[in-house]
Amino acid sequence: MRNQRETITKALETLTAGLLPYVEREMKAVLHDEWFEAAQSSFRKDRGKGVTARKDVIRWDVHSLLTVLWDQWNRVFRNKLGQAERSLISELRDFRNRWAHQEQFNFDDTYRILDSIERILKAVGAKESHTVSRQKENLLRERFSEEAEAAIHKAEDRRKKWRDVGIYTICCLAVVIAIGQSFGPKGWLLSGFISIVFAYFAYERVVTPPRIYFGAHECARCSKIIYSQECPYCSETGGEFS
């Protein structure tokens, strides 16, 4: 599956694009000429670079947008957004901080972030929610494709494993019978040794872990035929697909 951090980065960029017009519009509508100072007051001194020196112009990023939404909630945003949206904002601020500190994200984290972003964008009426919805669908498609492919390879490996055990068993019986016919009761020691050897081979085959699959197969993202676990075509294009 594509790098989870890459997916989250693109989702946060989409969140920024969707929230920006809403936040500015609501701040100006409620606070009028005081909106810039109110936004600026929401940042700590070391975060002030998110606001330009030019009056009535702000350069937003996802951190500054979520900070203003949180800090100006009572004055501006609670009139149109509910407690559910406030909880989403708190959650996204936490995820964004983890992302900024280079923390790793698993599939569950990534899907939760996408879902929360989609919900908050829908709440503010941003058309970018459709983009995040497609990202969620793509993420699930990748997950299910990889799980299905892994299940197929696991079943195939299991069939081959028991086929090999069956072959060992048949060969062992054939050799033991041949020894019995040739040496009679005197061949029991050799028959026992042969049986132990084949039993060991069968045991080793059963406990051998499934091999890592690197054969020719179709990439779940771009549908091109690849020969490695990671798709080189998706890596070149940043993992984007429609």
Record keyword descriptors for this entry.
242 residues, mainly alpha, 2 domains, two-stranded antiparallel sheet, 8 helices, disordered C terminus
Protein model, in words:
- A two-stranded antiparallel sheet has the order 1-2.
- The protein has eight helices and two strands.
- The protein folds into two domains: 124 residues, no CATH class; 92 residues.
- The chain is rod-shaped.
- The C terminus is likely disordered.
- The chain starts with a helix and ends in a 6-residue tail after the last helix.
Biggest sheet layout:
2 strands, antiparallel
Total helical segments: 8
Q: Strand order across the biggest sheet?
A: 1-2
Rg, alpha carbons: 30 Å
**Domains, number:** 2
Strand content is under 5%
Shape: rod-shaped
Low-confidence segments: 48-53, 238-242
Count of extended strands: 2
